[in-house]
Amino acid sequence: MEIERVQGKVFEEAAGFPTQYGPDRTDRQPGSPLVPHETYRDLVSIFLLIAMAFFLTAWIVPSLETPRNPAQTPFIVPDWYVLFSYGLLKLAEILPEFNVPGLLGLPPFRISAGFWGFTLTNIPLIVLLVLPFIDRGRENRPAKAPIRSAFGISFLLVWMFFASMYSVNNLILEKWPVIADDNVLKAFMFGPPVLAFVASYVGLRRLGYSPMYWYRVVPLMAAFLITAGHSAFILATLWGHAEWGWIAGFLGLLTAMTAAPAIAVTWLPEKVALRATVAASTFLILFGALLWWTFWFYSPGPAFAVEIVILPNMHTVLALPVFAVITGYVGLRRPYSTYEYLLNECYQCGKCHTVCPVTKVEDDALGGLNLVYNSFKKQHDGVPLWTCLACDACSAVCPLEIQYSDYILEERAKVMARPAVDGGVER
């Protein structure tokens, strides 16, 4: 009955029903003023950061190092925030160079490493400049736009990090010989961002409560098959090696770390699959650490342990197990509360409070915004949780299409499943 009245717009002219929106509305809900609430909080944060800076400068005195030698040219790099640009300029050397003939009266020009470096450097800036003009729709949380958000994580964070790392490639190869080759650093600019995109997309899609089965199975099965294939290739290459058994055990452990999440998400229910993934990954990590420690100290020693890590394609075999464990976890994990993410979208328009039939007779509901919102924020004495009729009138008028009654029924089920306080049995 309430839903029919809502659909018939019976409440549109009712007193208290909000019809004004935007910054000029006169019926907006009271909030926390800028002064003194927000001002005091910001000042406390600023003073805390300043105190931390003073403490670090007093406790860790920076060294003056040796005087500069005018006969030596120092290793010069740009400021940290443009290191990625410097890395892209270095990467331009692997791109093709050719001449472009003049067209439409334009003179011919050459596509050189400098052209590629300039173009690649400006791509991130162009994306940031164009994005506000392209994204003209309503505000979306990351889980509501998983592809765009995952692209931002993989591109703006992971890709730019590895591009910045490549800007000092000579120092990295000198300090960490385990990386072995400059081509590995170049591959880091392409492989990890792709893995980060897939893992972020799976996690964000899970956060938005979208169908997940194939989105978990396909990347995890692909990681397992690639790891198994690479491991078999490495073992075939090293067949007959004196330490072939140790290497086979180590690669088998890495393959098992990709197999456990893939098998769990394919054939087990979600809750069981999450427990199995966490348990199997924890066991394999501990067992792998023990195996590596034994390998390092007993046979054949640290030198060959480093040699194993720099085997051909070994970086892929090391990265995919980490990807599989993270993707399996974020793809199976149930976010904090089924409706917590959705209810946090509430911007207090008041429509749900106006149409709720219980607010007309329930004193506890009259003082707050809405029965369900008060229950979610725990701003009640427990009564509103049970006075809700689950008529879904609030869901019918919610601009964000949040199903409030589902949350109420879920919370009731949680309460009924708890053991009685006085020693009763679990219902």
Structure description:
The chain starts with a helix and ends in an 11-residue tail after the last helix. The protein has helices spanning 2-7, 34-59, 83-91, 113-134, 146-166, 169-175, 182-188, 191-207, 213-237, 244-267, 270-297, 302-309, 314-332, 340-343, 351-355, 363-366, 371-376, 384-387, 393-397, 404-416, and strands spanning 98-100, 109-111. The relative contact order is 0.08. α3 (83-91) crosses α5, α5 runs antiparallel to α8 and α9 runs antiparallel to α13. The chain has 427 residues and is mainly alpha-helical. Strands 1-2 form a two-stranded antiparallel sheet. The radius of gyration is 29 Å and the shape is globular. The longest helix has 28 residues, at 270-297. It folds into three domains: 78-98 and 110-131 and 140-210, no CATH class; 213-335, no CATH class; 339-416, no CATH class.
Structural features:
mainly alpha, 20 helices, 2 strands, 61% helix, 1% strand, globular
The termini sit apart by: 33 Å
Order of helices and strands: HHHEEHHHHHHHHHHHHHHHHH
Choose one word for the global shape: globular
Q: What is the alpha-carbon Rg in Å?
A: 29 Å
Largest sheet: 2 strands, antiparallel
Beta-strand content estimate? under 5%
> How many domains, as an integer?
3
Q: Which regions are unreliable across 5 or more consecutive residues at pLDDT < 50? A: 363-369, 419-427
Q: Kindly report the spatial arrangement of strands forming the biggest sheet.
A: 1-2
Mean pLDDT: 77
Q: How many strand units?
A: 2
Report the structural category: mainly alpha
Helix count equals: 20
Helix content: 55-70%
